[in-house]
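One-letter codes give the sequence; the integers encode the fold. A sample entry reads:
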Amino acid sequence: MSERLSEKPNDARRRNFLRGLAGAGGAAAALAALDRMEAEPEQVAASLARAAAAVPQTVIEAGDNADVLIRMQADLARALKKQPAERRWVMVIDLRKCVGCHACAIACVAENKLPPGVVYRPVIEEEIGEYPNVTRRFIPRPCMQCENPPCVPVCPVYATYTNAEGVVEVNYAQCIGCRACLTACPYGARTSDFGYTYAEGTPNADGLILGHDAADDYERAPNFEYGKPWPREGHGSPMGNARKCHFCLHRVKEGLLPECVTTCIGRATLFGDANDPDSVVAQLIHRPNVIRLKEELGTKPRVYYIV
């Protein structure tokens, strides 16, 4: 058997990855790593890291053939150069690609350190058809970021508002927890934070790897929604407040895609600026097989579904 045929699967994948880098243009570090792969594995790993850092720009230049995540990253970089009022953030969810893995929901919980009972992006399961021709459809349901949001006018203290980019935000410092917005939202996209923790009621488990004290310390660490630290101490915000998806604005402002987008294994969730005609989302939202939920209510959601 030849040396090439006797390669381990991981080695073959590395070789293909390196060739892809070289084909994308100018990955000298990758070519050097190809020659030294078996002889100097540690040096190769370092070379791979340097080469990977150069991939986005070379792949972006490849245009429509690039991975959609790379294209969206380029779209985001362009959008952030504009004034906030000139951007129109939208999300597109391709229901044909969603496999119901719930990775987006779990990633959202981890990114925003959501406590029990608070879920920004549930995945609704729907059974369609008649026996024996029955199938299941999975519908991720973030906040719709409505252009005409019913939750805004009902807030008695103006804690819920639409920012310059069209994203509906919650001012935790101003929210009084009346939950009027929860009732007003026709999508059930808002939840209330009652201050619970996952470690509540668990034993301290002295001598074990993780007990109540260690787990509770982690849960009391701050999250950074809206770009500000929110420690879970005492009964301070966001405990007692209404909470919702905010398109991961704290990530977007730093040039990162929302966590649910980067985590989707099927590339079913897409994000970008609809005011950019060259963006991925702008090219998708005008297709004939695109819908929005409960359009008859006049809420004008900024979350689109491909069916």
Q: What stands out?
A: The chain has two domains: 9-66, 73-306. The mean pLDDT is 83. Residues 73-306 form a domain with the Alpha-Beta Plaits fold (CATH 3.30.70.20).
